Amino acid sequence: MSALRFPNLPPSEPQGSDLLSQERARTTFSVHEMSTFLYGEVHLERQDRLLALIENDPAFDKSNRYFRGRSDRFRAALRKDHTLVKLSQKHKWTPEEYSHADMLIDEPGPFGLHRNMFMPALASQCTDEQIEKFLKPAMRYEIIGCYAQTELGHGSNVQGIETTATYIPETDEFDIHTPYLTASKWWIGGLGKAANHAVVMARLRTAGKDFGPHAFCIPIRSMEDHTLLPGVMAGDIGPKMGYNTTDNGCMWFDHYRVPRISLLAKFSNIKPGSGEYVKPPNDKLSYGTMVFVRASLVGAARHGMARAATIATRYSAIRRQFVDKDSPKKLGNQIIETPVLDYSMQQYRLFPIIAAAYACFLTSKEMMRLYHLNLKNMASGDFSLLADVHASSSGLKSLTSTMAAAAIEDCRRACGGHGFSSFSGLPLMLQDYVPNVTWEGDNYILTQQTGRYLFKSFRELVAKRKSGKFQSTQINNPTLAYLNTYLENPNLKCPVTSSAQFHNPEIQLAALGHRAASMVAQIVHALDVEKRTWNSMLVDIYNVTMAHCQLILVQNFILGIRGDLAQPDGVENPAAGLSATSKEALTDLSNLFAMHTIHKQPGEFLISGYLQDKHIAMLGESIMDLMEHKIRPNAIGFVDAFAFPDFVLNSAIGRFDGKVYEAYTEMATREPLNKTEVVDGYEEFIKPLTNPKGLKGHTMQSRL
Amino acid sequence: MSALRFPNLPPSEPQGSDLLSQERARTTFSVHEMSTFLYGEVHLERQDRLLALIENDPAFDKSNRYFRGRSDRFRAALRKDHTLVKLSQKHKWTPEEYSHADMLIDEPGPFGLHRNMFMPALASQCTDEQIEKFLKPAMRYEIIGCYAQTELGHGSNVQGIETTATYIPETDEFDIHTPYLTASKWWIGGLGKAANHAVVMARLRTAGKDFGPHAFCIPIRSMEDHTLLPGVMAGDIGPKMGYNTTDNGCMWFDHYRVPRISLLAKFSNIKPGSGEYVKPPNDKLSYGTMVFVRASLVGAARHGMARAATIATRYSAIRRQFVDKDSPKKLGNQIIETPVLDYSMQQYRLFPIIAAAYACFLTSKEMMRLYHLNLKNMASGDFSLLADVHASSSGLKSLTSTMAAAAIEDCRRACGGHGFSSFSGLPLMLQDYVPNVTWEGDNYILTQQTGRYLFKSFRELVAKRKSGKFQSTQINNPTLAYLNTYLENPNLKCPVTSSAQFHNPEIQLAALGHRAASMVAQIVHALDVEKRTWNSMLVDIYNVTMAHCQLILVQNFILGIRGDLAQPDGVENPAAGLSATSKEALTDLSNLFAMHTIHKQPGEFLISGYLQDKHIAMLGESIMDLMEHKIRPNAIGFVDAFAFPDFVLNSAIGRFDGKVYEAYTEMATREPLNKTEVVDGYEEFIKPLTNPKGLKGHTMQSRL
């Protein structure tokens, strides 16, 4: 029971639900058709089915999520993960169904890394014997594992880790040891409290040599009672900005002995007795998993942007503020405040985010297709796709997760004060999202890999062109294509003479391609001719990677609408089901995304020589015009098409029905501080100041 | 007792404390002298004195701050605020001492708004009678108040609030009422649980007319026992992204009657009986307080940037990662990883933030001086400074708080994974800081006020110049000066021919002035000639305000180092005490700030026509060179000069002594989840999966 009760009064007119109905009535396309384009029928049907199973299960109840302290939240997350395992076993879920349910529940839990890192690591590095011993029990959740790579003093540079695994020929064992405090395993999700096994990365030492980091699967807690095994110390690393429902843990080893089979031996091994090291056949194979994880993070970015944009856009259609004097809104005869979504600044803050989310939908699907294609190719010994896919997945992880973290925060701020309330759903979402910019390769460090690939491609292309044997038919990927176009004419100028011409996708791609290629050329010159150090060029390398990846996003958006993106075998092209109105609406977003991408960083485009001053002004006009006349009427339709159930949003202000203020006040009554009318602490900390003598009667008020 | 114990092992070499000592040894200037330049002796002496009082008082203990749930944190904050009041009474603190102590304790508490909004509102709007009745008891903390302006449906637009205060001639009372759910008071700091009085903004209705929002000081909770008074309902609005130690509250009124004296009547009043409204003499007077609050927020921005930069810079000098192959570091004969602060990207992420913090130190002091000068002027009827001060304080609040929020998050990310840990001190700091971009005028809305002033100034200047009577000696403020320079020669080109020439402050100011003025000219043309609507220009108006305020920051930085910023009466110019080495170091920062400000948004400078492509490349080179050779050696000195005690930072990784990993692991042992070895929930949620039959012995491990 809450001591806080709100009056039985409606919000003042117009009502949020009426406003959203009006918005929906003027949407020019079919929202369901658009959702189907984004997700496919299978996803949408599955979502309805899973939601029905989950929504009313008390283990997945979200009504207390914003109020609990960490220990309570962790216990609830443990219960949630347990129930999810049971449900998945009962319904025999596929991995896709499990992930989809997990997305709907939307709470990083203690078993998350078991599924997303521990099992994939085992799957890719176990021998057949190890599959029986480790992977199969893990799939049944008898073994619950974590992936222990990062150390207190060592993150991005895996080669720098200090934990050792020394082979002891006498007993055919490894001695796992933590030589320094900095070698303590740290940040390991699921390790703090839940896991009973760990894949530990440690320096393999044998026969007097150090062979660098290798993976070992070892027990850390007793299978009988979950106590720590002798020689292992572990615990939780404490509170974080987000992810507090996961037990990120720390661990150290005191000459902990494990049998030789602990070394995951699909690729490299130790000969028993002699301890001779057997080298892996091809170290490129491990890149596959990284590509998968990074491609998944592009998907996570589009999810984050879409979700935040849904909340902020709906709320902005309902929230009214000031009167736009040039165009006042009326309700009957009365002038009322203007919905904030009608202000050009609010549109400029939100609509490019909606467009970016759509852009990332198409690119995340394309990255997944390329991942699977490359995996298939590599299995048959063809590594031709690997470099390009690895470079673009690294760069796109960096670009899109930086975009998404900024977008979620921008959406939060665009909701004014209410975006700061947990009830908006945005703070927790942001806090759980932001580690994406750091993990799986820090966004700044990661771009060096993309840069290396671009410079190598450029140098090879230049050499080929000089050799006299070059034919443009040799160009077999889009990166080489735009680099070659630039080399054909480095002084190309944009032919646009009116703002509407920037809707031409060929112009957009030419601008983005020329800018990226000119930056590549300039950096290669600095490195190769001016002999600048790599370190001194890091800022430029970051910038060129962003430029390259922005081009990929725009390109895939354009191709995707046209139906010109390849699809995995047996998958119908989603563009085939698009009506003309949907295609037009998508083209509006694609134009906005491309033009805004250019317009917000005009410097590089001007310096590349392709655009001139006048073009920047034209782009600005074209963007404002497009947003006001084409995007604004469809804004609610665009975010409705993201198809987030209210259960996922968990937001008072982003609800589908628009009952913002009713939901918000109801949530406030549940705040634990409102359980009592007079706060705990009044007697000790307020009364001694305000009524120290304990006077009866309304002493102070009598002064009035 | 924690179940988590770390080994008695040191971090691997080199030790953090040694690294910081080496950094400090090569600082070229006196850190104490630099601190004195920033803060003055009075502040530094006061800090030592207050810290000694506070640091070991259990009421101000920070060791549990990162672990508590909201209700516990709120209770601790109540205790903290209570103790602070008692301490201030015991030691007869001045307001400056109180604020300084509050900054050191660094936790927004339930009495914060009493001091920062309630009492100032009373002080500026009370009659002499009301000072006795309200302000004096408030100063003694008998009355604890809050400032209730914002409503659930109404934020930035104060004119839109819906709460009514209807004068009842029969009883000489006001009837305070909440007509709609949207009229519920919302976000009011201190209202949720602590306050017994409120200054309520409500629409004054009398004699059949609505006179818009007016301030009323009314009791809301009983002075006897703190229960809510009949007709008032109030409570806490629930958890937020930050500020959870403050009880932001909500409130609604059911025809709540208060006597006429509740209307704060210094400027306007009601005649008893007739209810006739007596108008305020000059509504400009209320702008003074806004200027004060916004100038304070510039100070808060520099505080946030400086503090985050201190943590991230110290940690980056200790954290090592990868080997810079072109310039490997050695320890004895061993190649060791390179400190991340030696990478140009890390320098580019952090050093401009250090420079921006220094810039904001100078501008925040200058804004405070102007506030006091303007106040003095207004008291004698001189309103000549008001428009400029109001415009620049609005724009600077917007610019600097946006910069600071980004800077804190950038510093957090620059600490890699450990920046995500609460123990870094950065997440909580960010969460408590970010409302600054929304409150006291949303950063996007606020800039319209600055824009209006700029356009008006420009139009008047153009008219004066056309009138033929114009003389440049009429230019009496820096805004008119740069607008006039532009009008003298709109086609001016930058004469710089080598990168070092960008160290010339006149060139920096010319570039910033030409860019801002050309944007003003373009917008005025769009509004006046092309007849574009105000709404359609909001993005440009925001951009021009940022450009204008960046110029102010650069200008004050340059003038401040030279000793050419005016000082308040009786205050010695802090630049007078600067030695040549300190001046040189400050000039390095000033150059970095100016050049980076231009270089990160080159588009507007290119479009203004002042800079050409080649200049952008020169600026880039100059920035990288300056950072590597001049800023890097002094980086630790620059942040040490911010003089934040470890007590304020509350950061494992930003400590003065560099014992990062030792402090970090010690903090982890205090995590409540580590109190037990086996987690609460194991029996219900883990064991049924991993050992459902309750088998004894290490059953699973026997498989190994």
TrEMBL record, chains A, B:
Pathway of action: Lipid metabolism; peroxisomal fatty acid beta-oxidation
Domain of life: Eukaryota
GO CC annotation, single: peroxisome
Domain Acyl-CoA oxidase C-alpha1: start-end pairs: 287-454
Residues of the Acyl-CoA oxidase C-terminal domain: 504-690
Swiss-Prot/TrEMBL keywords: FAD, Fatty acid metabolism, Flavoprotein, Lipid metabolism, Oxidoreductase, Peroxisome
UniProt keyword annotation of Lipid metabolism present: yes
Residue ranges of every copy of the Acyl-coenzyme A oxidase N-terminal domain listed in the record: 31-144
GO biological process, one term: fatty acid beta-oxidation using acyl-CoA oxidase
Active-site residues per Swiss-Prot or TrEMBL entry: E440
Cross-referenced Pfam families: ACOX, ACOX_C_alpha1, Acyl-CoA_dh_M, Acyl-CoA_ox_N
Subcellular localization(s) per the UniProt record: Peroxisome
Keyword Oxidoreductase listed: yes
Domain Acyl-CoA oxidase/dehydrogenase middle: 146-254
Catalytic reaction list: a 2,3-saturated acyl-CoA + O2 = a (2E)-enoyl-CoA + H2O2
Major subcellular location class: other
Residues where FAD binds: T150, G189
Cofactor(s) the protein needs: FAD
Region Disordered, annotated ranges: 1-21
Molecular-function annotations in GO: acyl-CoA oxidase activity; FAD binding; fatty acid binding
Family, per entry: Belongs to the acyl-CoA oxidase family.
Name listed for the protein in its UniProt record: Acyl-coenzyme A oxidase
